[in-house]
Specification:
The complex is a heterodimer of chains A (120) and B (103). Chain A is built from no helices and eleven strands. Chain A is mainly beta and 120 residues long. Chain A is globular. Chain B is mainly beta and 103 residues long. Chain B contains no helices and eleven strands. In chain B, strands 2, 4, 5, 6, 9, 10 and 11 form a seven-stranded mixed beta sheet that branches. In chain B, 34% of the residues are buried. Classes of the chains: A mainly beta (120), B mainly beta (103). The interface between A and B is medium-sized, with 21 and 23 residues.
Chain lengths: 120, 103
């Protein structure tokens, strides 16, 4: 059974940092592209970042470019998202998701999400 | 950047109704479109990919059609568990969502 489990969310002050983790199980993590998607309270889904299965290609939403960094450790089947210079606009539930194919952006396995609250 | 729009934004329907949601892209995206179901407090669920391919395990009452700039998600007979918000997606762009609520 393919599963993803996020952790690392919490309450942080504006300007602060966090690192989110997502541990994969039940599939060959090193073979799949991965994404982070978020949903702010009362808002829709917003794609945040993408990383190629090799880790060599990354892409970010304009809203987080230069502040967030996606990475992965295939030896640990773990995906990361480092969040920096956080603002209240970054308050959201953050989901990691597996791409169904090769850079097709069809997200077929999702974690349950981890909540990030940016507040003073 | 390609913009995705959905209509309606909210839809009121009864169990057993046939429901259709429309998604439009600001330029042609061929059939590079997915549909997701999102319930409060739950992770999104992939329903349809490549505009019309049903994801494994998704009930056959869900179907997707379209290509180019206009797409539809149809639920042939709405079930109680289908009340949720539905999102279309092309690459890194999600539509704004369509909330399906109980009439």
């Amino acid at each position: 059974q393919m599963q993803l489990m996020e952790s690392g969310g919490g309450v942080v002050q504006p300007g602060g940092s966090l690192r989110l983790s997502c541990v994969a199980s039940g599939f060959r993590f090193s073979s799949y592209d991965m994404h982070w998607v978020r949903q702010a309270p009362g808002r829709g889904l917003e794609w945040v970042a993408f990383i190629h299965y090799s880790g060599n290609e990354k892409n970010y939403a304009d809203s987080v470019k230069g502040r967030f960094a996606i990475s992965r450790d295939n030896s640990k089947s773990t995906l990361y998202l480092h969040l920096d210079s956080l603002t209240t606009e970054d308050t959201a539930v953050y989901y990691c998701a597996k791409d169904r194919g090769s850079v097709v952006y069809y997200l077929d396995v999702w974690g349950n999400g981890t909540t990030v609250t940016v507040s003073s | 950047d390609i913009q995705m729009t959905q209509s309606p934004s909210t839809l009121s329907a009864s169990v057993g109704d046939r429901v259709t949601i429309t998604c439009r892209a600001s330029q042609s995206i061929s059939n590079w479109l997915a549909w997701y179901q999102k319930k409060a407090g739950k992770a999104p669920k992939l329903l349809i990919f490549k505009a019309s391919a049903l994801e494994s395990g998704v009930p056959s009452r869900f179907s997707g059609t379209g290509s180019g700039t206009e797409f539809t998600l149809t639920i042939s007979s709405l079930q109680p568990e289908d009340f949720a918000t539905y999102y279309c997606q092309h690459n890194h762009n999600f539509g704004p969502g369509t909330r399906v609520e109980i009439k």
